[in-house]
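#struct-pred

JT: dropping the chains for the assembly here, can someone run the whole complex?
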Amino acid sequence: MKEPSRPAPAWRAKAAVAALAAVSLYNALIQFGLTDQFTSQHPDPYSVMGLQARLSRIFDRIPPGERVGYFSNVPFTEPAGQAAFFAAQYALAPRIVLKEDAKTANQARYWLGIFVKQEDFAQKGRERGLALEQDLGGFVVLYRKMEQAQ
Amino acid sequence: MSVLAWITAAAAGWFWVRALFPRADGQPAWVRYGTEAALGVAFGAGAAAAAFFALLWAGLRPPDAAWTADALVLAGGVLAWLLRRRRADVMPPPEPAAPLPWAWMAAVAAAGCLVAFLAATVIYLRANPQGDWDAWAIWNARAKFLAHEGMWRNAVSPELTETHPEYPLLWSAAVARAWVESGSLEQAAPQAGAFLASLALAALFACSLAASAGWQWMSAGLACLFMTTPLWRMAPSQYADVPLALFVLAATVAAAAAGRARWSAPALALSGALASFAAFTKNEGLAFCIFLGAALAAAARTRAAWWLAGALPGLALTALFHALLAPPKALWSAAALLSFGRFVDTLSGFAAALWKLGEFPAHPVLFAAVLFFVFRPQRPCTPLWPVAPALLLWAADFAAIWGSTSAADWQAATAADRLLLHSLPVLLLYVFVWLSRSTQENGRQNVAGETPLR
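RK: done, full complex below.
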């Protein structure tokens, strides 16, 4: 015959509740501390808001329905390259941003170049048939397709 | 104004919830109002966003679509409330729960955790107004397309190869609606949405547990929920995962309430609507919606037709979106499902994510297990059907990564913790309800001689 299981002793239940309370509260303080530390050390780690502020100067120059071409000297296979591209797309939406290897990229009249160091930005554009329209600072450059620029 | 758009949606949602959610005899007022407020946030945000997107698709300009959607949800809610305010279905009081020894300690911990959680969320949102990666790369980027006049179709353009134009659009539409109504694209709109969804998730979990098991078990359950590390990370991320977890919990809570109120038709319809909002938030939500519908069909039989009636508008919108708008994308591959290596990668990824649900020794599953072994439930968990959809969702998530066209190890490493978060509040809720009921005998003997706290 199966013996009915005995209830847990009261001290065990109290210990479990005390442990739950202590550990959860300690964990909450740890999580809060980690959040505070991370946010103070890495606010906007991918400079999304910074790029948005930089690109806001050209919003009224590019119609909302335009496709904007995009190239960078940071490969898209690297997280920094992906971050730069997605941040540009976020800032320029509702315009669709197309990487230079996209099928429809050659239709884009405006192009955005994002670099990680000072280079001959005009030359980088000319290599792709683009004319430098405006250096937006921070290694961010707006180009225009050569035939439109002329 | 960005914040006000969320509040007005929640207020409109509250009328629907007040009209459709059953009342419980003898329930403390704070539990009732807390449940209604949290469900109101979920229903209001979901209904207003779904209506906004449907009206955009129908050809209205974004401002017209936003204000018309608000008017429709509010008018419908007020009408439903007027028609049903004296005919609300009633739930019987829940089984009395066992008193929890030293519950005041759990209450202090839960309150402390809540304050720390909300403070951490606010700090993160202020320092990172753009949210985390997927927020600006996917969800809010697509919201910007929806918010601009004549540009909403860009959100589903096949040219957005990296921005997942095939993903459902409910949360992006919710953010876009707030942007349109505020008249500017300030980050305050998605920030407020993220904060409100996180607060509503915690409040609904707490109030649902309090309604079933009393404030003592609510405190223990809430303290355990806040051990979930991904919840701290996802709450301020502005991803669609916390809203999805909210819809999953809300639909389950409404369905369970319907079951307790003799399969109340209005509560079933409310559950159906909330599940359909989950379906239009993420593909995982669609899987959950199917599982909940199947569970209800098995448990409620023909009464499940009311659930389907509630789900129909949202499900129709989701189906039309996938059929007519979303660019085709191969999500599954039979060859991937036959790969044992992918199975192992997925399994190890999920195991790692399960381990990382908490930071040892603070781990929700670990502490649920500790309480299980301490209180040793004598009876099986009943009813089981509300838990089944949440468990099946985990199984479906596993199968989706195993059979996906992307690298299984990368997908599991980056997404498994978020996938586990979708179902975790439901599962923790039912574990604590189970513990509170099946330990009655234990509890009475455990605390014999002590003054009951409830």
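JT: nice. Residues 442-454 of chain B have pLDDT under 50 and may be disordered. Chain B has one domain: 2-331.
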